[in-house]
Design goal:
Number of helices: 11
Structural class: mainly alpha
Distance between the termini: 53 Å
Helix content: 40-55%
Strand order of the largest sheet: 3-7-6
Order of helices and strands: HEEHHHHHHHEHEEHEEH
Largest sheet: 3 strands, antiparallel
Number of strands: 7
Strand content: 5-15%
Length: 299
């Protein structure tokens, strides 16, 4: 069962250097003081009860999962229970709700990427959610406004993620063609499966994630030499390339075809049109997305 300390543990995992527990002071968004702020969060003495209420909603609500994810995220950001890291924890809560429901298994739906790119719309929707009944605000309209925005972001995230899976599958099929004759249980073959999921890796990482079965039926890690030789052969076949050398001579290998697809997908998520031709909604300097390589630029 979810309880406050579990939610706080989530925050502590994301920000291990922060003091555990909810905030003890006033926080606000925008402006140099609460008087000039765009939003002032609830007083710290109200935070524990508000969080208990949020946890009760997560545990007992029969709302559809996506509605629950949207409202719990908006409520957490409204409570702003910690001095720092509320945004990261709120985005992680979305994935936790989706994961617990079983809608998303073994991955992360990139809703947060959409929300990050569409920050002006996100802020408007969040401000609408924070209605004030003294100013004529309506609770139902406030919730519906944010849920609509969130569902739109989710729809676009699902569209791009689904396209990405199909594209990765096509690349994996092309790898199979390029590696005909490679033994089914070889290090190369196992590396191909790993690279489709983790397109940037080192020999050390690969050794931790792929195994072979010895003559006694026991699983064992491949040697560094075996992994290195397999990566060198995949490099010769044009499937991976060496992109960097870390400290102590650790070489980083990348499956560039998959990396390019990830880059294109993030660019799509930054556009209302879900394409890579229209300018991203946020200036490039505000995102840490690298520019498109020349061979991926629209002609």
């Amino acid at each position: 069962m979810l309880i406050n300390r579990n939610v706080d543990a989530l925050h502590s995992t994301l920000l291990p250097h922060e003091r555990p527990g909810f905030r003890r002071g006033l926080v606000w968004i925008g402006g140099s003081s609460p008087v000039r702020a765009a939003y002032v969060a609830p007083l710290p003495e109200h935070v524990p009860a508000l969080m208990e209420d949020l946890v009760a909603y997560l545990e007992t609500s029969t709302d559809p999962v996506l509605v629950k994810a949207a409202l719990s995220h908006a409520q957490l950001e409204t409570i702003h229970p910690w001095s720092d890291g509320n945004g990261r924890s709120g985005r992680a809560l979305i994935q936790a709700v989706l994961g617990r429901s079983g809608i998303v298994r073994g991955g992360v739906l990139p809703i947060s990427v959409v929300l990050g790119h569409r920050d002006s719309g996100y802020v408007r929707a969040l401000n609408a959610y924070r209605y004030d009944p003294r100013e004529g605000g309506n609770a139902v309209a406030a919730r519906e406004s944010f849920v609509r925005f969130f569902l739109g972001a989710t729809r676009d995230a699902v569209t791009v993620a689904s396209d990405l899976l199909d594209q990765v599958g096509a690349v994996a099929a092309s790898w199979a063609e390029r590696t005909k004759g490679v033994r089914a249980h070889s290090a190369q073959r196992r590396l191909l499966a790993l690279l489709a999921d983790r397109p940037v890796l080192t020999v050390t990482y690969a050794r931790k994630h792929i195994r072979y079965v010895d003559r006694r039926g026991e699983e064992r890690p491949y040697s560094r030499v075996a992994i290195g030789n397999a990566l060198a052969e995949l490099e010769r076949r044009g499937i991976v390339r060496r992109v960097a050398v870390r400290d102590r001579g650790s070489v980083v290998f990348a499956a560039q075809e998959i990396v390019d697809l990830l880059l294109l997908s993030e660019r799509r998520l930054g556009s209302d049109l879900l394409d890579t031709v229209a300018a991203p909604l946020r200036p490039a300097a505000r995102r840490r997305t690298p520019p498109l390589p020349d061979h991926l630029r629209p002609q």
